Amino acid sequence: MTSTSRHVPVAIVGGGQAGLSVSYHLKQRGIDHLVFEKHRAAHSWATQRWDTFCLVTPNWQCDLPGHPYDGPDPHGFMKKDEIVEYLKGFIAKVKPPMREGVAVRQVQRRPDGVFSVETSDGDYTADEIVVASGGYHTPIIPRMAEKLPGSITQIHSNQYRNPAQLPEGEVLVVGSGQSGAQIAEDLHLAGRKVHLAVGDAPRCARFYRGRDVVTWLADMGYYEMSVDEHPLRDGVRDNTNHYVTGRDGGRDIDLRRFANEGMTLYGVLEDYEAGALRFRDNLKRSLDQADKTYNGINAAIDKHIAEKGVEAPSQDHYSPVWEPGEPVTALDLAASGITSIVWCIGFTPDFKWLDASVFNGAGRPKHARGITSEAGVSFIGLPWLHTWGSGRFGAVGRDAEHVVQAIEKRLGTERFAMKVAV
């Protein structure tokens, strides 16, 4: 670092809802800071979602600090454009000191204890680093993709926009988590022939016994449960989210019903060799396990209703509407009619720019509600940072306040005037 480095007490890396929430609470305390966003604020919501994307949680759960949802449909599910407008409203309220289009390339601690921050627009120093860039950085595409014929169009879920984007022909969607299940549905509803390689993602009902399942779970205190209270402890952070949708007012996603309607289901895609796609023989087990989770959540709601004496209509538990036949473990690609593949198997984190001893063997940060063992390094916006809603609009603001309280304590009682020129 040179003597011309600009200093700021707190550097926030990432300008999504997490970084903006930290900025909100820092401004409330008059603590000087700067947000670095390599694209534009809330970039991913506008550019990395498909056209029909919508929230899978009801709008009333959107509660960014000082900016709760106040639209006309609290029990609905905002579509992509509405989400972007909601975030624009939050940005307008926060008025964060932000450098958009500036990428943070490296952060490391100097011998004097201050952090050096190398960016695409010069050098900075900071007393505190808040990592608000999320955990979904590098799209996962398996090495087998390199062996597929060049005639097959391949995209990742973050590149998918709509069915017309793909060439004519049948589509293989790989992965049945939230993105995979919803993209498969999007293609299916558009009349495309879909092949779906099913993973181990669980599912849940959209509505049960007269209410949205999210509302029941909120009443049951599920969203207040901390990671330390969860039966899986830290292991819950690796869980795949349940698939469900808010599309068209909200409904279940039932892969068995899709199969009845012409979608072809397989087990996990394991390889491509000798011209054939190779699938694991786990389809029935995966579907059964997803339904077990679905009915288990509903059974917990039944218990809550009974214990609290809540008036609610009765409803039967789910029974399978389709069962797989003889497992298909090999599919001749050339003869299948498949012309495109959408990879929906997630992302890996990439924190290589941060030189700090805060990561485990898998490259994931070790922390307690965002606070790491290295003073001055904090994380925000990660799944289950503290509760289920930590990576979502519902609870990220509370986590941000917790992180900022720790920062304020470390910086001392002195207040830093907002002097950073942006």
Give a verbal description of the structure.
By secondary structure, this protein is of the alpha/beta class. The protein has helices at 17-28, 43-47, 80-94, 178-189, 213-219, 255-260, 283-308, 333-336, 396-411; strands spanning 6-13, 33-37, 63-64, 67-68, 98-100, 104-109, 115-119, 122-131, 138-139, 153-156, 170-174, 194-197, 207-208, 211-212, 264-266, 269-273, 276-279, 330-332, 338-343, 347-348, 354-355, 377-379. A hairpin with a 2-residue loop joins strand 16 and strand 17. Helix 1 (17-28) packs parallel to helix 3 (80-94) and helix 1 packs across helix 9. The protein is globular. The model is unreliable at 413-418 (pLDDT under 50). Keywords: Oxidoreductase. It comes from Methylobacterium brachythecii.
Helix and strand topology:
Elements: E1 6-13, H1 17-28, E2 33-37, H2 43-47, E3 63-64, E4 67-68, H3 80-94, E5 98-100, E6 104-109, E7 115-119, E8 122-131, E9 138-139, E10 153-156, E11 170-174, H4 178-189, E12 194-197, E13 207-208, E14 211-212, H5 213-219, H6 255-260, E15 264-266, E16 269-273, E17 276-279, H7 283-308, E18 330-332, H8 333-336, E19 338-343, E20 347-348, E21 354-355, E22 377-379, H9 396-411
Parallel strand pairs: 1-2, 1-8, 2-5, 6-21, 8-22, 10-19, 11-12, 11-19, 12-15
Antiparallel strand pairs: 3-4, 6-7, 7-8, 9-20, 13-14, 16-17, 17-18
Protein name: FAD-dependent oxidoreductase
Keywords: Oxidoreductase
GO molecular function: flavin adenine dinucleotide binding; monooxygenase activity
